[in-house]
Amino acid sequence: MKPNWINGAWVPAGSARDNINPSDTRDVIGAYAEAGRAETEAAITAAAAAFEGWSHSPVEQRHDILRRIGDDILARKSEIAEMLAREEGKILREALGETERAGRIFHFFAGEALRLSGEMLPSVRPGVGIEVTREPVGPVGLITPWNFPIAIPAWKIAPALCYGNTVVFKPAELVPGTAWLLSEIIAGAGLPAGVFNLVMGPGRVVGQAMLDAPELRAISFTGSQATGRIVAEASLRHARRFQAEMGGKNPLVVLDDADLDLATDAALDGAFFSTGQRCTASSRLIVTDGIHGRFVEMLTEKTRALKVGPALDPDSQIGPVVDQTQLDQDLAYIEGARRDGANLRAGGEVVRCDTPGFFLAPTLFTDTDPAMRINREEVFGPVATVLRARDYDHALSLANDTDFGLTAGICTGSLKHAQHFKRHAKAGMVMVNLPTAGVDYHVPFGGTKGSSMGPREQGRYAAEFFTTVKTAYTWA
Fold first, then answer.
1. Residue 464 catalytic?
2. What is the pTM of this model?
3. pLDDT above 90 (res 87)
């Protein structure tokens, strides 16, 4: 059994969960400890006790530790990526890219530790000086999803430690292996006991214990809207700051003047790569009349040509969905769209491979209506729809017709329309002639409307969540 890491030691648990490979369900990757409430509370207590010392630690110490973590991730990237592909189902090429990104995130925040800054301002009163500085929030709880098992933990853990906070980290139950390898690296990087803690286990136990703990002064969560609301409500009871990233129903607008090859490639990438299991996936393709027919024919052909297979097979372009529950959910949405009258142009069926797994053919629907359930709710699988638009204004209206607002994209040769879309798309991130999925690690990440609550993640904007501002006055 792979144990939890609590207060500077590996701590076993009374029960464990088998980690199953979605590309081959006969492959049990290993057994991972399931923390209970007692282990979780011990981790929270350890983080609270370690906060005073770590919050005043020298910035060079933080830099060196974060740099060491990033170095070790990159040195072990092949091992980590193979684990990630085995347990989550992302093809190996994508798993390697995600692992490298995690290493770069730790390197970025190592640098940020040396760039902690404030302001010196004059007062309106003679002889008084003012300092504005940032201080860490306190012990923080980090709850991460299964679809990016190392990148999302990295972009929460690295800034939390950079700014002097202590951490209780709960990864998703489906991907304990990648989280354990990351935690093994962090545990060996030289942090004082209690500064970083790993508690694996079910959300109803571990996550609930974290939400119930007043010692945790901030919670950063990525997952579903329903759970995000629970995080928000629980945090308000404790006057605790919270951050919730909760998915998207992202539009990609394709105008008549778009480069057809570029547009179909952007749609293919955004909709289906990473098996569509990205909150930034292009799930609604909004195409204007003049290019609609050619776009649909070309995208249908490209979608049907995608090779579905095991994550570690070098010929695979699309791996499995993460588990049977996700496969059943995807199939239910597909069947619902067919009942609602959508035209199935590609995919829609389970794929049989040489190994038993959760393989689903990339699925494309056309002739869909904005009111259909398939266009309202996040499927979180390799499923995309096409909506026909009369012109740019109609396309923009359809793009904004959603309760979500994470990312939005447009393919066009018109600078006028590109500039207008960047200003008027109701989303936190906008892409022009690019897939809606795929973001850099050194710039802010987050959305509007039902996609996000709280300050942005990543880049220098992470300081808005992981620090609090202090204003000090001095008379001399």
1. no
2. 0.97
3. yes
